Amino acid sequence: MTPSETTTADDFTRAFARAWTAQDAKALADLMAEDGDLVSLTGRWAEGRKDIAATFAAEFAGTLARARLVTGRAKLRQLGPQVAVLHQRFVLSGLIDPQGADLGRVGVVLVATLMITPQGWRAAALQFCAAEG
């Protein structure tokens, strides 16, 4: 599934997970609105697709170089016909510290404000953070 195939808000999670697994920073950025905002797993705030792609690329070259996602529980709330809020749990493994040691598995949550565009559903804002419970 490519970003252009996000014909429903539910498709967003699948497209995100596929792009993540491929460590395709451009495909992840393409899931965002052109002027979208990202708060990444490492806490970086990126604005706009170019900055978002650079953020994901840097993370995949470092801490997230061997990271893998396992999809968990999701909650999608339609706020209207063209806007939705997505909460998606993942288990993230393969994180490495600067010395290359495995940091174990952690629970993470992706929270995205999605909007429909001519290219499909895109995130106007996305936060990807560690979570418990």
From TrEMBL:
InterPro entries: DUF4440, NTF2-like_dom_sf, Steroid_delta5-4_isomerase. Residues 14-97 form the DUF4440 domain. SUPFAM superfamilies: NTF2-like (SSF54427). Pfam families: DUF4440 (PF14534). This is SgcJ/EcaC family oxidoreductase. It comes from Gemmobacter lutimaris.
